[in-house]
Amino acid sequence: MYKNLKQVLSLYGVAINKPYYISLGNPKHWFPEIPFRMDFYTFFVCIDGEITIDVDNKAHIIHANGFLISAPSTAIRFRNASKNFKYKLLLFEKNFLIKNLSNPFILEKNLLFQNDTYSIINANTASINGLEDILSYLERKSKDQKEFTDEIIRTIIFNLLLEIAEIKQQNMTDNSGVSENASTVYFKFRKLILENILNNKSVQFYADKLNVSNKYLIEIVKKASEKTPHEIINEALMKEAYVLLGEPALNITEIAFRLQFNSVSAFGRFFKKNANISPLAYRKKENLKA
């Protein structure tokens, strides 16, 4: 169900052979109406007008000078955009960015994705202008076909992310109580969930995979995110459910068993407990016909 960078862009007539994509100042022209889940990073800044989007099934309105930064596994659904809406966009694959780096969690540890897979931030005009300048430079350099172009692109993207992290830091709570080793366990836990959520929903499974006790995992996850491991697992499972419910070819029974529920009623109870609405009612409400 993940949509990789090439797959997503090909749906809208954009053919790329690079692990990144930049679009500057274009009007809205390719946003799909159904939810989809991405396996790449997204930086999306509104430069004029506004757009309404669902991110992990939570509605947000992004105005001019607002931006979205999201990690792989984020579920997106575009709703409505004003007639004067324009945006700038950067998409990139994680493996491209962290090539030759020893720390696979560098993006998480620079404050961008410590507590969730995305952030929506409103910035001042000067900050947005600075981010736009970096995007423009990135776009120019991406047209080069030289020996060190990829390395230059990586460096520019890192600079952009650090600027974004600096803006975000002003709105963050302090997680300094989490040690370096504990934060690494937490990020590994989130990575394992992305890889195993369709087959394993037990906290004990993830504790065993990380070679830690159930109690220790609960403790560090709570400190790092103010959530329990069970809550994070349920959020990931709901994200899968929302995306699958957006697939017209799948009926509720197929979705329930794809998510490893032993019955349709068990899936229905789980979904209603977390969404306050049944799967069928959700589809009807969102006009997602099976």
Overview of the structural elements:
Helix content is 46%, strand content 20%. With 290 residues, the chain is of the alpha+beta class. It has two domains: 2-169, Jelly Rolls, CATH 2.60.120; 180-285, Homeodomain-like (Arc Repressor Mutant, subunit A, Orthogonal Bundle), CATH 1.10.10. A five-stranded mixed β-sheet has the order 1-3-8-5-6. A five-stranded antiparallel β-sheet has the order 2-9-4-7-10. Helix 10 packs across helix 11 (264-275). 27% of the residues are buried. The mean pLDDT is 83.
Shape: globular
User: Between the first and last Cα atoms, what is the distance in angstroms?
Assistant: 17 Å
**CATH H-level homologous superfamily name of the largest domain:** Regulatory protein AraC
Strand order of the largest sheet: 1-3-8-5-6
Low-confidence stretches: none
Level-1 CATH class name of the largest domain = Mainly Beta
Order of helices and strands: EHEEEEEEEEHHEHHHHHHHHH
* Helix content estimate: 40-55%
Summed over residues and divided by their number, the pLDDT gives a mean of 83
Number of helices: 12
